[in-house]
Amino acid sequence: MKYLGLAYFTPEAFAQMSPDEVKALVSQCPALDEKMRATGKMLVSASLGDLDRWKTLRPRAGKTLVTDGPYTEAKEVVGGLFIIEADTPEEAQRIAAMHPAATIGEAGGWAVELIPLDFYLTP
Question: Which residue ranges form the domains of the chain, and what is each CATH number?
Answer without folding.
Answer: 2-116 (3.30.70.1060)
